[in-house]
Amino acid sequence: MAPLHSLPRAPKGLPLLGHALPLMRDPLSFVKSLRRSGELVRVSAGGMQIL
């Protein structure tokens, strides 16, 4: 398995908050939008990495 840092990161993350805002605002649309980034992407929320 590839190391986490080699996986593509989901676009439009903010410093410190990461992807927390789009996840809270419209989680289903955000998760559906991740398909464009690849099969497995990194998402961050408050400093934590989520796969």
UniProtKB/TrEMBL annotation:
Gene3D superfamilies: Cytochrome P450. It comes from the Bacteria. This is Cytochrome P450.
